[in-house]
UniProtKB/TrEMBL annotation:
A motif (GXGXXG) lies at residues 445-450. It comes from Colletotrichum higginsianum. PROSITE patterns: PNPLA (PS51635). A motif (GXSXG) lies at residues 480-484. GO terms for biological process: arachidonate metabolic process; glycerolipid metabolic process. Keywords: Lipid metabolism. InterPro entries: Acyl_Trfase/lysoPLipase, PNPLA_dom. One of its GO terms (cellular component) is membrane. This is Phospholipase A I. It comes from the Eukaryota.
Length: 624
């Protein structure tokens, strides 16, 4: 390694049996580009060496390697070494350089090479490394032929299936003794130059294949390969698949696309409007900030082709009143072609979010007639959670991506206008920090005694003592039952202070719990009012009214009071003060028919539930 100009510093000055050390090639050798060198050996023994003690600057993680059929064998160490090299190093290597004298000669190299070729394909990448064999004697062509012939005796797999090419370089001294020292140094320079040239050709090939990774991405991929070394059934490493492990494609993406495409009533609208929007949404989905710029053709084939093929048959194969047809294969091809065209702008430095923002804004007139309670049309992959006055619901992710973070509060996001129709909406949405726990407030019922939980909250607010900070802003989830639901709605949906809620609650109680009036029938009405002064008769009348009307108090009183408090035109999920304070509000209710339990919320839940769901009640209906 030192003869090649690699400076090995502590703690890598000595390498134990079975260890792999990573070093950086010097700048003059790598032409200014960082080149990582893995220094290792081929285990010649029947056992692995002891692992070195953990150093102060490195984390030590221990993982087990599976052996053949779970039973240890004398060759387990050698097989384990082959497995590690095949799964962990070869997918990332540009050049594999073997020194024949260090590993036992050409026959030993042929034996190990045949073993590597018989293993499963290490990765799905089209980039294959060079194989370089360095010898101290013999003609290079003769040694190469000897090596390949020995490999063919051991396996039917050709070396070209795993390696870009096989190169033999000899360091033998064939010159007079007086020139050997100088020429031997020259041979090392030739080896170094050959390795540099091969590395550069592989770098160019990786650029063309969109798999030249940054140090951050390379470290993540290496970590993933290391963590799955012990999984004997793991599929070949796919760089593209690994990049989406923490951000998988939405499982219900096909349903979201189908809802969107049903609004396209002609093939012209499909190609002019839907195709660019869908293609741009795929770029937005796959290329968030920091994502490696994989080839969009590969991205589409792996993640989106099947979805497009299936949704075409379900939604846009034909249009009513038109003889034009869009075949699934045709739809997939035009989406892929559109992705490739848009991707060029990403390579010039534009983000996928800004590209998508510009594209959806250009279709403002088309968005004007589109509404959905189940699909965020801005990203086409999530359920909307926030509904401005224009009715174009947005999911939390789109609010974070396209909204503007407040300069005074990093967790408050301003959404000044709808990105779809361009209408001014003036929403302020608070998001919960990722590291914060959930704070829950539950308010029980109690009829006219429902003001006491409010008084308790008032005492809590006074004890906290933060000016201009209402107590309800200290909670992320607020649920209420019966009169507690009224309090939860007043505090969070209306954004009233606790004092105002207490005052309005007392007024509401007086208005809602007014006894039924006596019928204004001449003579009979006066007689009934007179007899109501008799306690026994009054009790009988109230019991009869309870049985007849199934309620002690008339419903129109409380309905009128709730409409005055919450309005009759606003849906519970519409933008409200709860969104500004970041509160998720829920109300437990029961149906009139069979008293089955239901939950009304101001947030559009993600996922599907059995039974009746998905309707958005008005605020006064939910609380009633």
């Amino acid at each position: 390694m030192q003869r090649l100009g690699v400076d090995i510093t502590r703690p890598n000055t000595t390498r134990g049996h079975g260890e792999i050390h990573l070093s950086l090639a010097p700048v003059d050798v790598s032409d200014g580009r960082p080149t990582l060198i893995a220094d290792a050996d081929i285990p010649p023994h029947k056992r692995l060496g002891r692992p070195r003690k953990s150093t102060l600057c490195h984390e030590l993680a221990t993982r087990s390697l599976s052996t053949s059929h779970g039973v240890a064998s004398p060759s387990a160490a050698v097989e384990s070494g082959d497995h590690v090299y095949n799964r962990m190093l070869f997918p990332f290597a540009d050049v594999v350089c073997l020194f024949a004298d260090d590993v036992g000669g050409v026959e030993m190299i042929a034996q190990r090479l045949a073993s590597w070729l018989s293993l499963e394909t290490p990765s799905t990448s089209s980039v294959r490394p060079w194989l370089v064999v360095v010898t101290n004697g013999g003609d290079e062509n003769s040694v190469r032929n000897q090596l390949l012939q020995a490999v063919r005796k051991r396996t039917n797999v050709h070396a070209s299936e795993r390696f870009h090419g096989v190169r033999v370089i000899s360091l033998a001294d064939m010159s007079p003794k007086s020139l050997r020292r100088h020429l031997r140094s020259l041979r090392w320079d030739i080896l170094s130059n050959e390795l540099s040239y091969m590395t550069e050709t592989k770098r160019v090939e990786r650029v063309l294949a969109s798999c030249l990774f940054s140090a951050t991405h390379l470290a993540g991929l290496l970590r993933h390969a290391t963590e799955h070394l012990g999984d004997a059934d793991a599929p070949p490493l796919s760089f593209l698949a690994v990049s989406r492990l923490d951000n998988p494609v939405a499982a219900d993406l096909q349903a979201h696309l189908a809802r969107f495409l049903t609004h396209c009533d002609s093939v012209d609208a499909l190609k002019r409007f839907a195709v660019p929007v869908v293609a741009s949404s795929f770029l937005l989905d796959h290329y968030p900030p920091g994502m490696h710029l994989f080839d969009p053709r590969d991205v589409f084939q792996v993640f989106y082709k099947d979805v497009c093929h299936n949704v075409c048959g379900a939604a846009v194969l034909a249009h009513e009143g038109s003889t034009d047809l869009v075949l699934p294969s045709q739809f997939s091809k035009i989406i892929e072609a559109q992705m490739v065209r848009m991707f060029r702008q990403l390579t010039m430095g534009q983000s996928a979010a800004s590209l998508h923002r510009q594209l959806v804004a250009a279709f403002a007139e088309d968005w004007g007639r589109l509404r959905s309670d189940s699909t965020c049309f801005l990203c086409l992959r999530r359920r909307p959670q926030f509904f401005p006055e224009c009715g174009h619901g947005q999911c939390m992710n789109c609010v974070k991506v396209f909204g503007v973070t407040s300069a005074a509060d990093p967790w408050l996001i301003n959404v000044d206008e709808c990105l779809l129709c361009g209408r001014n909406v003036g929403m302020k949405i608070r998001v919960k920090p990722d590291t914060a726990s959930v704070r829950v407030l539950c308010i029980d019922g109690g009829g006219t005694r429902g003001k006491y939980p409010l008084k308790l909250l008032k005492q809590l607010e006074d004890d906290i003592g933060l000016p201009d900070h209402p107590v309800q802003e200290n909670f992320d989830v607020v649920f209420g039952t019966s009169s507690g639901a009224i309090s939860a709605g007043a505090l969070c949906i209306n954004g009233w202070t606790v004092d105002e809620c207490i005052a309005r609650f007392e007024s509401l109680s007086n208005q809602a719990f007014t006894p039924r009036g006596v019928p204004s029938i001449p003579i009979i009405g006066s007689l009934i009012r007179l007899m109501m002064q008799i306690p026994f008769f009054a009790a009988v009348v109230r019991a009869a009214a309870l049985l007849l009307f199934d309620s002690r108090y008339p419903s129109q009183h409380i309905e009128r009071a709730l409409r005055d408090m919450f309005g009759s035109e606003r849906s519970l999920v519409n933008y409200s003060a709860a969104d500004t304070m970041g509160a998720m509000v829920g109300m437990t209710v029961a149906t009139v028919q069979d008293a089955s339990a239901c939950i009304f919320t101001n947030y559009n839940g993600v996922g599907q539930r059995g039974g009746d769901h998905g309707s958005f009640p008005f605020s006064d209906d939910a609380i009633r």
